[in-house]
Amino acid sequence: MKTLILMRHAKAGWAGPGMADHDRALNRRGRSDAPVMAHWLAARGLRPGTVLCSPSRRSRETAALMRDELPWLPEPDLPEALYHAGPGTLLEHLRGLPGGCDSALVIAHEPGLGALLRMLGGGAAAPGRGNAGGHFPTAAIAVLEAGIGGWRGLGADRAELVAFAAPRELMEKPAPGA
Known about the structure:
By secondary structure, the protein is of the alpha/beta class. It has one domain: Rossmann fold, CATH 3.40.50. The protein has five helices and five strands; from the N terminus they run βαβααβαββα. It has helices at residues 28-43, 57-69, 87-95, 112-120, 167-172; strands spanning 2-8, 50-53, 103-108, 141-146, 160-165.
């Protein structure tokens, strides 16, 4: 069994004049949303053994904020190919993970993440799982489980969506007992 955690980078500011998209930094909301999602992961006992991250500034900043909250989180691998990667490129990198790694976190961009989620079989919205089949909001996380022995076996319709959360939804829920 392999666990795949897909996370869209947190909210970034717009590119200013002469600024490359690659260099866009997180805005205030993005800097507050990433720690919320780190705590959501930890509360579910999700401990990725590897982190694949787009090298864009907003993705790297998201990974750094996650690691600030979860010091055990591995240092991210930053393949240049993950910058605005499509589902095929994302899948190719996942299939290259070592067999001993049972859980992986991918921090990347739309529309590639949403397309990968739908391709793997986790695209249908389900009760308690948010709108996983539609828009993949910034800092949202989709957790999929795949009944495969090694990452090479990951492919179309080989995984099941088991959880989906977005920071806005988490912050809107009333506290227990309230």
